[in-house]
TrEMBL record:
Coiled coil: none annotated. Residues 223-243 are annotated as: Disordered. Gene3D superfamilies: GntR ligand-binding domain-like (1.20.120.530), Winged helix-like DNA-binding domain superfamily/Winged helix DNA-binding domain (1.10.10.10). Residues 16-84 form the HTH gntR-type domain. Residues 227-237 have a biased composition (Basic and acidic residues). It comes from Pseudoduganella plicata. Keywords: DNA-binding, Transcription, Transcription regulation. It holds the Pfam family FCD. InterPro entries: GntR_C, TF_FadR/GntR_C, Tscrpt_reg_HTH_GntR, WH-like_DNA-bd_sf, WH_DNA-bd_sf. This is FadR family transcriptional regulator. It comes from the Bacteria. One of its GO terms (molecular function) is DNA-binding transcription factor activity.
Amino acid sequence: MSALTATVTPPKKRHRNLAQGVVESIGASIREGVLKPGEKLPTESVIMELHGVSRTVVREAISHLQAAGLVETRHGIGTFVLEPPAPPLLISADTIRTIGDVLAILELRISLETEAAWLAAARRTDVQVREMGEALQRIIQGGSVEADVQFHLLIAQATGNRYFVDILTHLGTTIIPRARVNSAQLAHDDPAVYLERVNREHEDIYNAILRQDAEGARTAMRTHLSNSRERLRKAQEETATSA
């Protein structure tokens, strides 16, 4: 028996579902680093002998491992261990519960979106800037959170870098503070005055991208997000003082 074959050992207990027993055994060897990315699994015949199962069971187990993204089968060559999948982003609506959480998201966005605005101004197409203008008009006309999200996503798309889009898409409406908390109420602001200020900030971002002013777009985005953070920070302080 080769050293590689020996890495796939039978489970200590017999599973009612034989395929699951094979999955757990091979999966454990992969997670523990005994079977490394790029290495080839033992042949079906060897796995059958090690686990005392049929070829059908082995093929079912391999199918489960493929579905889990742990291995891939190359026709006529064999089955190989894959690189482990990247862990999912641990940010979701469920994890953003307090003003402090929203402030933390804003800090992340300042570092991310200021550069996205810079790139967007340099790389945007006429079609993309027109779509941004349409989203801006929807924001101004109705203060729509969805339009606000779309505006920021369009900027991310204009960077030509899919990872900006991936992150903002994953964050969804959590990127907009007023989707999580009543920013105007917390800041003791007149809602109309608050929305006018936010709309003006969006207009500054849009106009800089329109004229392809990369530094101006970066500054306008930083100003917008920093102002949002400052409004919420003051509201948080007032809430803590009155508690």
